[in-house]
Amino acid sequence: MIDGREAASNRRIWGVAGLVEAISQSLAERFSVVVVGGEISGFTRAASGHCYFTIKDADGQAASLRCAMFRRAAAMLDFSPADGALVELRGRVAVYEPRGELQFVVEAMRRAGAGTLYEQFLKLRARLAAEGLFDADAKRPLPVLPRRIGVVTSTAGAALHDVLTALARRAPQVEVIVYPSPVQGAEAPPALVNALRTANERAEVDVLLLVRGGGSLEDLWAFNDERVVRAVATSALPIVCGVGHETDVTLSDLAADLRAPTPTAAAELAAPSREALLQQLAGLERALALRLEHRLQSVGQRLDRLALRLSRPSDALARQRRLLDLLAQRAAAAPGRHIELQRQRLAHLAPRPARALAETLRRQAARLDSLQARLQALDPQHVLARGYAWLDDGQGGAITSVHALLPGHEVRAVLADGSADLRVLGVLPSRQG
């Protein structure tokens, strides 16, 4: 109860919303960007895509902080958060005003300690990829029907139980041989390498499963160890690697011949389903029986036809007799037919020489007429008959120019019907000459 004296004083009386807003502003100014580490508890993802959980110290202290991670930030996660996971959160401290509760608005999340390890992961992946350890061309196909499957994992982990359960359900006919090895801790990498070497030396299985359950990046780090990755890449036996959950990717996954999202999936990928194989065999059996039945029916029909032909040999003899009669008629008629054809051919060819000779004579006569006309056209006598005269110097040499004449010269003029001796009285050259 507030007494009258206090109410009458100059002290400010806050409204609830105003006070909460003032506290929120103060927190935002002081804790605008904060990184906090701890363990996730009560993680839920709403249908809207927003995530809500509580972060608390991993050493068991009672302090806790409600967190909200909105859909945009949650979409950028590269792993699946779960209760108990140690994480580092970057964000801001705020007040959820409807309830006046303190909360941490998460803008980014990563596994605790993942920064340094992830950088090591990226550097090692780049170096091994440059060497070709992850090339797709180096991947080998798995055996279609394995008789024995080897499993490299810890005998104390749930992964072995999952693999054995899946194989017993899916392919009970397949024998399983376990090559035990720790899958976490400093002793895990050399133990895994030794287990892989042992399996290859014994060569008693058709395919190897390298598996373990999920965990943090630190928990799965043995499968990023360079020694293990090289042992996987150089294995003579094909390897299916199923480490962690579907979102977990190790370098051993990249080096293996096939990556499985989980240990159970590795078992399912390595061994075909017995039920599916039986169904396939049943289908082949039905197809074989159907084809055999069709073949028997076809052969039976052919036998029936042959039996009918054998039951009436007189019909076959009659057909052969008719064929022989026809051939005899053709043979008897063939000479006469041939002679008649030759006679017709000769009758057709006989007029050809006479026609060819007549045509040749006609063409030669026409050619002679043409040559005679050309010869007559060139005869000088025809020119003289048109009133021209030919002058010579009396020795038979033709005079073709007045420059060859002088007054008093005697020349001969040859006309169409004779010649005359002439004397030159004068020479008058033309202007053009």
UniProtKB/TrEMBL annotation:
One of its GO terms (molecular function) is exodeoxyribonuclease VII activity. It is an enzyme of class 3 (hydrolase). Pfam families: Exonuc_VII_L, tRNA_anti_2. Residues 133-422 form the Exonuclease VII large subunit C-terminal domain. InterPro entries: Exonuc_VII_L, Exonuc_VII_lsu_C, OB-fold_nuc-bd_dom. Residues 16-110 form the OB-fold nucleic acid binding domain. Keywords: Cytoplasm, Exonuclease, Hydrolase, Nuclease. It catalyses: Exonucleolytic cleavage in either 5'- to 3'- or 3'- to 5'-direction to yield nucleoside 5'-phosphates. Its EC number is 3.1.11.6. It is found in: Cytoplasm. Belongs to the XseA family. Heterooligomer composed of large and small subunits. Bidirectionally degrades single-stranded DNA into large acid-insoluble oligonucleotides, which are then degraded further into small acid-soluble oligonucleotides. This is Exodeoxyribonuclease 7 large subunit.
